[in-house]
Write a structure and sequence with these properties.
alpha+beta, three-stranded antiparallel β-sheet, elongated, 8 strands
């Protein structure tokens, strides 16, 4: 006769052991997914789908970032200009500068000049030495304004432009021939004698020039003489003034000290 009572604990223990083994397998499946993903095709499919969606979202975000990125301006050069990568000329003479301002006053406006002065720019324009000659020549670019300000303009200098820019004298007020051999005492006397014309504003505006005025050697004598013209101001600012020197003027200019100038 079988003792079912005596065998029950053993059977119960076996069942408990089997149950624990099953629970361990289930627990292993739940808490160690890495080890079992390869055995579950549905999980693999879901995992691949999630990765694909994330990759697409990342790609869209990168494209959006590139689209929203502001356009970078071209390299800026002295004169607040923008035109690719210009090669600015720095050896422009005062006489050449005066002619450029007059020749191209349609784009080198008083507003452009004032902007350059307020921002301590060397000039209100840039001459780009496109042929690398080291001097102003046909085909070089005249660059005016700024892309940031929305007033940038580029002009290609012609052979006629170069001829006028490099010609002796100036192109305003009768094409004068500036004298360059004015001595210090003559300069002081001229500034004092004509201080009503050579004002502090004119001096400040022309501080980078040799002098705030021009004596035109109209008789080609090579020195200041009666009939030569004193030119002050410019057409750009609309304040060009001309005074023909008299005998009295010449005597005072070449005489002793008249006083201190308004420099």
């Amino acid at each position: 006769m079988i003792n079912s009572t005596n065998n029950f604990p053993s059977t119960a223990n076996n069942l408990q052991t089997d149950s624990l083994g099953t629970k361990q397998q289930i627990s292993s499946s739940v808490f160690n997914p890495t080890a079992n993903l390869s055995q579950l095709p549905i999980m693999q499919l879901l995992f691949s789908l999630i990765i694909s969606i994330l990759q697409q979202l990342l790609s869209q975000l990168m494209q959006q970032a590139n689209t929203d990125k502001p356009e970078q301006p071209d390299n800026e050069t002295p004169g607040a200009t923008d035109s690719g990568n210009p090669s600015p000329l720095n050896n422009i003479s005062d006489n050449q500068n005066a002619k450029i301002l007059i020749l191209h006053k349609d784009i080198i406006t008083p507003e452009i000049i004032d902007y350059a002065e307020k921002n301590d720019l060397t000039r209100p324009y840039v001459i780009s030495d496109e042929d690398g000659s080291g001097s102003i020549s046909a085909g070089d670019f005249l660059l005016v304004g700024s892309q940031a300000e929305g007033n940038f303009q580029k002009r290609v200098l012609s052979a006629d432009d170069i001829s006028l820019i490099n010609s002796p004298g100036a192109i305003d007020s009768g094409n004068p021939s500036p004298l360059n051999n004015i001595n210090n005492q003559q300069d002081v006397n001229i500034r004092f004698l004509f201080k009503d014309l050579i004002t502090p504003e004119i001096i400040e505006r022309t501080k980078d020039f040799t002098r705030p005025y021009v004596i035109s050697d109209d008789d080609n004598s090579g020195s200041i003489s009666v009939g030569d013209r004193l030119l002050v101001g410019d057409n750009i600012h609309g304040d060009l003034q001309e005074h023909k020197l008299t005998v009295d003027d010449l005597g005072k200019i070449n005489g002793g000290s008249l006083g201190t100038s308004n420099n």
